[in-house]
Amino acid sequence: MSLFQPIPSGQEPGDRTRPLADRMRPRTLDEFVGQEHLVAPGKPLRTQIERDDTGSLIFWGPPGTGKTTLAQIIARMTKAEFVEYSAVLTGIKEIKQVMADAERARQYGTRTIVFIDEIHRFNKAQQDAFLPHVEKGNIRLIGATTENPSFEIISALLSRSRVYVLKPLTADQVVLLLRRALADEERGLGAMKLTASEEVLQKIAAYSSGDARSAYNVLEVASTLARERAGKEVGAEITKEIVQDALQKRVLLYDKAGEEHYNLISALHKSVRNSDPDAALYWLGRMLEAGEDPLYIARRVVRMAVEDIGLAEPNALALCMAARDAVDFIGMPEGNLALAQAVVYLSVAPKSNALYTAYADVQQDVERTAAEPVPLHLRNAPTGLMKGLGYGQGYQYAHELEGKVADMQCLPDNLRNRTYYQPTNEGVEKRFRERLEEIKRARSKATKGPSSQPKRES
After folding, report:
1. Which pLDDT tens digit goes with each residue over 314-337?
2. What's the CATH code, domain 20-165?
3. pTM of the predicted model, to two decimals?
4. Sequential DSSP letters for 384-435
């Protein structure tokens, strides 16, 4: 039995066992909806396809944006054999077999396109198995991935492929596809003469989040419910209530271990930093409703408090720790509000990264400068030997000095007069800045004062 499978034509009108999304799969670039930046006339991918010069490709984009469909269209337009694999189900043995078949087919002038769905799930050894055959031209590899190929595809394979980024479909594009499905009597639901308002279709489109497959699935379920409730096979109406029942609960696009996880937490953090409580609440909701670990979010919120608010509002850290404790204590979904309170508080709080940058400078100095010993006058001298060696000699006890500030060097000599913390004029830090000016004046006054100062061990 040949490993080569025919490309689904989508032209079997009587086959209603296939899902609607599969039946409605576009057969040509003119039928294809979305990705105009790639396949509109004159755009790079379309030009390559029309010239039959695609080479190996990686399609990177969210589910339901046309990655598999594009691969099938390319194979059909270039008259190549099409072999489709799922990286979840395929191993090295199957890969080697199809590579051997492709090499033999090439000797007879037949080209082979090998399409790997979820190619990011292949390990390094499995990806390596394709390299010699890609280099020899035995196959044209098309990989589809929802994950960033920079992290998931080996560099050798990536360098031999063109990467194209597919975008989620817009709501209007999804509605267009749904209308096609309702009208198409050959492959879609046209024979049922179903009706649906624009509002209903927009609701399905909003649910799908740019995923055409998901939208088709909802429409298919809704069509069944509509006919059952109407008690007739032809002419039923798909209402908002029916769509709501078909939806049940929206499943948000989210992978706790994938790039979207990091994209959303980045959006939350940057919205807080930009003092936008509405955006912060939205991104928080996106993460929580998709099932993110609330304690992970709580840890990141605490980080925001110390990185972006700092001493401009010292209470921010305490409030975020309290939110963390509340999530741990009362659980979810009640803990959602504790996190919501924290991100709104952080968003409207005065902002300062002075402490963050100060500690970063300290880290750099610790790394790049010599680790000089602690100055003798800052060391305690609990023994006679240590006193004899000069430990504690010259130490000035600030509480016994006017202004409570001594003119005493506390940094090692190689960092003398180094300034790390430079408070902003935001929130409480404005008072800190004023206080540091007072300390500077007091230190200057101490320098000009009597040379003999009281001394005491710390």
Report:
1. 999 999 999 999 998 888 888 899
2. 3.40.50.300
3. 0.59
4. HHHHHTTTTTT---GGGSGGG------S-GGGTT-------SSTHHHHHHHH
